[in-house]
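Please fill in the sequence for the structure shown.

STRUCTURE ENCODING:
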């Protein structure tokens, strides 16, 4: 099993990248989330997940291990294949996926092409506890007043950010824009962290 590839990007599109390493070019499927963080000609390290079928051996590449773990969690759900998981990661950021699943937001998941109500509900049922345990959440919140802040803090801690740093940034954002939604809080925080 391959864990990651280091090499030079020789071709970059919104759906796939070719990385040359050891004089071999590897074509890897990517999400839009990964695409936005890559630049043609750059030296890169991409984490991979290999899918082996009767007629193909496909690589799915990710900018970091967090995105790959979310991908692997998504494909563990019955009815969600590798291409559907990639579509989910292209439609929502990793933080937005965690928030949607842990908060039971069927509407957000249904808005993704190829995801119906039953698939969205199945993802929530199968992954809510798994994503909830990533951060061991019960007491990571400072203030119990702001539910949006709590959910944003939870998502950012699950993504690997330090709670104290995230808490300070979120306090500033909440004081500037008290009516911000969870998604807005996460996006604004990611820009400041």
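FILLED IN BY: designer on duty
SEQUENCE:
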């Amino acid at each position: 099993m391959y864990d990651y590839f280091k090499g030079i990007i020789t071709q970059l599109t919104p759906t796939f990248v070719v990385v040359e390493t050891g004089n071999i070019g590897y074509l890897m499927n990517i999400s839009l989330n990964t695409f936005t963080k890559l630049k043609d000609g750059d030296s890169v390290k991409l984490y991979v997940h290999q899918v082996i079928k009767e007629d193909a051996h496909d690589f799915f590449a990710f900018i970091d291990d967090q995105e790959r773990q979310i991908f692997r969690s998504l494909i563990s759900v019955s009815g969600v294949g590798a291409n559907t998981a990639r579509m989910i990661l292209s439609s929502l950021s990793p933080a937005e996926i965690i928030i949607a699943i842990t908060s039971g937001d069927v509407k957000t998941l249904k808005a993704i092409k190829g995801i119906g109500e039953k698939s969205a509900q199945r993802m929530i049922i199968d992954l809510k506890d798994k994503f909830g345990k990533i951060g061991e959440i019960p007491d990571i919140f400072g203030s119990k007043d702001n539910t949006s802040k709590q959910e944003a803090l939870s998502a950012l801690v699950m993504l690997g950010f330090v709670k104290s740093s995230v808490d300070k940034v979120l306090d500033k954002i909440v004081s500037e824009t008290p009516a911000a939604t969870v998604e807005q809080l996460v996006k604004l925080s990611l820009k400041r962290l």
